[in-house]
Amino acid sequence: MILDSLEKHLAQGKCVHFLCQDETRLGLKTLTGKVITASGVKPTVPVKWGRENFWIYGAIDPLTGQHFQQEYPKLNGEYFQEFLDWLSQQLGEDYAILQIDQAPAHISGAINWPENIIPLLQPPHSPELNPIERLWQFLKKSLKNELFSSLQDLRVGVA
Fold first, then answer.
1. Are 117 and 91 in contact (CB under 8 A)?
2. What span, in angstroms and rounded, lies between the C-alpha atoms of 25 and 158?
3. Domain 18-158 indexed as CATH 3.30.420.10
4. Could you read off the pLDDT of 4-18 as tens digits, one per residue?
5. DSSP secondary structure string for all residues of 91-106
6. Bridge-partner residues for 144, per DSSP?
7. Can you tell me the mean pLDDT for 59-67?
8. Of 3-7, 59-63, 94-98, 151-155, which range is least confident?
């Protein structure tokens, strides 16, 4: 297995994790979904159109479910770098192969990859190859048709 080989040759005595990384945006704009009503009754769901939002940057080990998440105000290379530096600290002495998509924030020449994180680019336009997308779907499923008065209320609703 490739991870065993890396542990043997690159990171002797260290653990090598395979992590899948991506971001998702959460905000006050209502996520709508189907509503069950009695036959002939038109469903109504209150909707909020506020545009306040934040981003969750995350990485997950698809085999164990171990995950790392941080909140940031935007999606850009600067915050991605902060996430990488934070993730590197969380890994400690361990290494990680980090599967990422080819978003501009991820492949910017300004990204300084920590020594213990090895990027693995997935093909462009292929989110179905990234297991963290299912985590985001699960997270957002409970938010459908919910109204939050503030971003703090949303944070509590997600937790």
1. yes
2. 12
3. yes
4. 655 555 656 788 999
5. HTT-EEEEEE---HHH
6. 31
7. 94
8. 3-7
The per-residue pLDDT for 111 is 94
Per-domain residue ranges for the chain? Answer: 18-158
**Nearest CA to 144 among 36, 22, 23, 21?**
36
Write down how long the chain is: 159
The more confidently predicted of residues 88 and 159 is 88
Angle CA(69)–CA(103)–CA(27) in degrees, nearest 5?
50
Angle at 151 between CA 49 and CA 89, to 5 degrees: 130
Residue the block writes with tokens 């937790």: 159
Tokens 């939050």 belong to residue? 148
pTM of the model: 0.83
CA distances from 152 to 24, 52, 53, 54, 138 (A): 17, 11, 10, 11, 20
